Amino acid sequence: MTINSNRYIEVPVMTVADAARFIGVGKKVIYQLIEFDEIRAVREHGKVLIDRSSLEAFHSSGKRP
């Protein structure tokens, strides 16, 4: 998995598990959304953290994972 480190994310952030529960999908789908640049994420101390605003924007856009 490649995480684009040259973009900034905003606080608050969510874990992959929390993001998956938030939009009702599995964790694998969240990793795919990161890979396809649909949502922003960073790796911090071994954890992948999802930018909540990008997740909310994706969810409200009506796109399907």
Automatic annotation (TrEMBL):
Superkingdom assignment: Bacteria
Pfam families tied to this protein: HTH_17
GO terms for MF: DNA binding
Protein name: Helix-turn-helix domain-containing protein
InterPro entries hit by this protein: HTH_17 (IPR041657), SinI_DNA-bd (IPR010093)
Source organism of the structure: Desulfosarcina alkanivorans
Domain Helix-turn-helix: 13-58
